[in-house]
């Protein structure tokens, strides 16, 4: 009997999020999507997760709903990361009706076939209505047991209890999610059998990041233990802090006697196209596409670093924290922030360093370092954790009592407490019609209404449409060929003393002049 390994492609979502801060333009995706669709993947990790609606509207100024329609034309099934604990765009106060409308739109466009849910991050009280909603829409449910290292997460029976809890909701599959790349050979040997034993025979997937340099060897060990579905990315969106390279994982399968159903030649073409297009992105293309131009393309392999197992800051969050420190005139103090992160995690009940908690903790750590006094200023999100807005899986029940009292005694915490009570009693039950009226959006299409709800106004949406009009295209435009001549012309155009350029070859000649 053949032993076949299947794959989930993360190139355009988690790969791009990890290595390009979600900055892969939709115009790039347009050029590679057909090949990815025909490459033989079980699923595509889709890039229209809710935070990306802000990214594409505000920063890249591309029409993300057009992206959704584009993905809806593909035959490969699509999945998105989605959590009732971080509802569309607002961390705690989005009405259920808006969630249902958003997911329904994706389903109607053929752009969504399953939802990936992290089952031990935000608590389970919301699953009582969220899981039935997903099933009502005809979507598959891929529950994730998220791996983490802390006294709370390593307690006896923790992963067994969480796996049983998720399996009881009768999902279509389950997976082990390792956002920090913290799994090693010993830990995957411990956790994978627990999930296999208590998941009621469901297919098990593995999703890890290369942040600590351990993901490839962990994948190999999981293959030996019977895992047959792996999340991978295509270089240059692989390695670094993203998923392992599809090429290396496929090669390891071969050496273990496992078969794959991937068209690697087609995927190689995808890789070459991304490398070529990365050179074509410049500051003119977007407000804040990535920050480095052209787009960076070398990310690995990553070296093993023990310090990552102490602070556990995800790779993408580290880069954002470094940027925050620059804005605070604290360049070069990331080590101090990392040490502060370790302290904050210990004091606040060991929240899992994954979105959104990793952002909360790192922002608070940066503030503590910047002010020179711990908790002199406290971000709203840390106060919300103390209030219990993110449920018991946030760790707030284990928060150091004196620190929790300090947080809850703050005037701002009292305001947030009232807002949270209002959400539980009123906001979450608002209808789409009521929200439309509040936003003066009765006349808008569902797509436009969702955008206005997200952007909290129309200005940034209008700016995006203006950029599209000036560009003459809903997406940025790219060539999939590597053309050094274009790079040369672009660089010469930036030279103030160069007014013209003449090129001659045996096949012809051309001359360019700068417009005065």
List keywords for this structure.
alpha/beta; 516 residues; 47% helix; Cyclin A, domain 1; two-stranded antiparallel ribbon; TIM Barrel
What would CATH call the architecture of the largest domain?
A: Alpha-Beta Barrel
* Cα distance spanning the termini: 71 Å
Structural class: alpha/beta
CATH topology of the largest domain: TIM Barrel
Overall CATH class of the largest domain: Alpha Beta
The shape is: globular
Q: Main sheet: which strands, in order across?
A: 1-2-3-4-5-6-7-8
Q: How is the secondary structure organized here?
A:
Layout: E1 4-9, H1 11-20, H2 26-37, E2 43-45, H3 50-60, H4 64-72, E3 77-81, H5 96-108, E4 114-118, H6 127-136, E5 140-146, H7 158-167, E6 173-178, H8 185-198, E7 204-208, H9 215-224, E8 229-232, H10 246-255, E9 259-260, H11 264-278, H12 308-311, H13 315-327, H14 334-347, H15 357-371, H16 380-387, H17 401-408, H18 411-425, H19 432-438, H20 446-455, H21 459-471, H22 484-493, E10 500-505, E11 508-513
Parallel strand pairs: 1-2, 1-8, 1-9, 2-3, 3-4, 4-5, 5-6, 6-7, 7-8
Antiparallel strand pairs: 10-11
Helix pairs in contact: 2-11, 7-8, 8-9, 9-10, 13-15, 14-15, 16-18
Describe the structure.
The strands form two sheets. An eight-stranded parallel β-barrel has the order 1-2-3-4-5-6-7-8, surrounded by six helices. It has a two-stranded antiparallel sheet with strand order 10-11. By secondary structure, the chain is α/β, with parallel strands linked by helices. It is built from 22 helices and eleven strands. It has three domains: 4-285, Alpha-Beta Barrel (TIM Barrel), CATH 3.20.20.70; 308-427, Cyclin A, domain 1; 484-513, no CATH class.
């Amino acid at each position: 009997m053949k032993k076949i390994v299947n794959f989930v492609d993360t190139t355009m979502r988690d790969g791009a999020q990890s290595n390009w801060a979600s900055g892969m333009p939709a115009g790039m995706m347009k050029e590679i999507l057909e090949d990815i669709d025909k490459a033989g993947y079980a699923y595509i990790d889709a890039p229209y997760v809710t935070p990306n609606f802000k990214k594409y509207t505000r920063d890249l100024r591309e029409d993300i709903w057009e992206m959704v329609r584009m993905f809806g034309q593909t035959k490969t099934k699509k999945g998105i990361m989605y959590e009732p604990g971080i509802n569309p765009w607002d961390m705690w106060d989005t009405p259920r009706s808006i969630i249902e409308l958003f997911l329904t739109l994706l389903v109607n466009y053929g752009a969504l076939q399953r939802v990936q849910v992290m089952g031990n991050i935000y608590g389970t009280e919301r699953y009582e209505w969220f899981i039935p909603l997903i099933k009502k829409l005809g979507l598959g449910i891929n529950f994730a047991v998220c791996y983490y290292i802390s006294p709370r997460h390593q307690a006896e029976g923790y992963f067994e209890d969480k796996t049983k809890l998720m399996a009881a909701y009768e999902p279509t599959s389950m997976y082990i999610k390792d956002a920090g790349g913290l799994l090693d050979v010993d830990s995957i040997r411990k956790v994978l059998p627990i999930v296999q034993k208590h998941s009621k025979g469901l297919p098990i997937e593995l999703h890890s990041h290369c942040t600590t340099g351990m993901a490839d060897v962990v994948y190999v060990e999981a293959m030996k233990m019977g895992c047959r579905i792996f999340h991978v990315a295509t270089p240059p969106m692989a390695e670094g802090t993203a998923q392992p390279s599809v090429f290396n994982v496929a090669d390891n399968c071969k050496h273990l006697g496992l078969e794959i159903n991937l068209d690697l030649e087609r995927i190689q073409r995808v890789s070459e196209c991304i490398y070529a297009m990365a050179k074509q992105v410049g500051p003119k293309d977007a407000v804040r596409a990535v920050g480095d131009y052209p787009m960076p393309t070398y990310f690995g392999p990553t070296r093993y670093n023990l310090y990552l197992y102490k602070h556990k800051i995800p790779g993408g969050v580290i880069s954002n924290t470094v940027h925050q420190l620059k804005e605070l005139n604290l360049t070069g103090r990331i080590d101090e922030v990392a040490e502060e992160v370790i302290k904050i995690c210990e004091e606040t009940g060991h929240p899992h360093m994954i979105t959104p908690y990793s952002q909360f903790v790192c922002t608070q750590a940066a503030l503590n370092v910047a002010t020179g006094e711990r908790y002199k200023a406290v971000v709203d999100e840390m106060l919300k954790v103390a209030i219990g807005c993110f449920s018991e899986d946030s760790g707030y029940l284990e928060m150091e009592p004196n620190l929790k009292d300090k947080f809850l005694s703050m005037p701002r915490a009292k305001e947030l407490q009232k807002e949270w009570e209002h959400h539980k009693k009123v906001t979450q039950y608002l209808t789409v019609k009521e929200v439309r009226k509040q936003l003066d959006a009765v006349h808008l299409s569902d797509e436009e209404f969702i955008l206005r709800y997200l952007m909290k106004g129309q200005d940034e949406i209008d700016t995006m449409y203006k950029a599209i009009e000036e560009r003459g295209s809903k997406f940025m435009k790219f060539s999939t060929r590597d053309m050094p001549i274009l790079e040369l012309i672009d660089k010469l155009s930036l030279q103030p003393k160069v007014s013209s350029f003449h090129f001659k070859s045996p096949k012809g000649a051309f001359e360019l002049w700068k417009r005065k």
